[in-house]
Design goal:
Radius of gyration: 57 Å
Number of helices: 4
Largest sheet: 6 strands, antiparallel
Oligomer: single chain
Number of strands: 11
Order of helices and strands: HEEEEEEEEEHEEHH
Helix content: 25-40%
Shape: rod-shaped
Distance between the termini: 220 Å
Length: 234
């Protein structure tokens, strides 16, 4: 074999090795910049007194991804939070937000779809699932402050039984209600009523006049009787 052929073969072999190395280097660089599920993260925070879920995409390749958030309960989807949103990642991180008044310690599943139908790069959930903070954004105004009784203590049944209810009032002559006498106290009206029952009423003068008339008539009859008797004895 001539020297020229050997040189040519060595040149072709070296060129092949160089091409393979370049292809491997480009492939490694391409995979390093490809979109992966590790480029995504999610947090639950407060915007004033409202809750919000924020998803960050740190994909330097800038692949457009679709993000969907679901509320979870016992590893099952309860409902979807809002509508799906798209984000185009950057090396510094691009963010999108979902308005959600999350409950303390609520769990959410954040699903990522990136790439095309022919070349799907990501189709997975952010692992682990997102757990909301233990404190809600808005304080519960209806909560009873500590140390303050929630209700006023009511009287016990025994106390209620021992308390006598006031007697119903009786209407007076003028049409107004007059309070009933307390205990055994005797009111002036009752005393007057008792006096009326024993005879001390307005008819006393008439009775006295009739009695005096009867006395006068009786005395006259006795006088005339004695006078007739004396005349008979003569």
């Amino acid at each position: 074999m001539s020297l020229s052929r050997r040189t040519a073969r060595r040149s072709v072999r070296a060129l092949g090795v160089t091409a393979a190395s370049a292809a491997l280097a480009f492939g490694t660089a391409g995979s390093a910049f490809a979109c992966t599920i590790g480029d995504f993260s999610a947090t639950a925070a407060c915007d004033g007194d409202k809750g919000v879920i924020t998803v960050t995409d740190k994909d330097p390749s800038g692949v457009t991804a679709e993000v969907t958030v679901f509320l979870e309960n016992n590893n099952a989807d309860v409902r979807q939070v809002g509508t799906a949103q798209t984000v185009k990642g950057t090396a510094k991180g691009a963010t999108i937000s979902f308005a959600e008044d999350w409950e303390p310690n609520a769990v959410y599943r954040v699903h990522i779809e990136a790439g095309t139908k022919s070349k799907k790069l990501v189709s997975a959930d952010i692992d682990p699932f997102l757990t909301a903070p233990a404190k809600a954004c808005k304080a519960d105004d209806t909560a009873t402050p500590s140390g303050t009784p929630s209700a006023t203590a009511s009287a016990s049944p025994s106390e209620s039984a021992d308390t006598e209810s006031p007697a119903p009032s009786e209407p007076s002559a003028g049409g107004e209600d007059t309070p009933a006498p307390a205990g055994n106290d005797v009111q002036p009206a009752a005393q007057q009523s008792n006096l009326a029952e024993t005879g001390a009423s307005s008819n006393t003068g008439l009775i006295v006049g009739v009695a005096a008339l009867l006395v006068v008539l009786g005395g006259g009859a006795v006088f005339f009787g004695l006078r007739r008797r004396g005349s008979g004895d003569r």
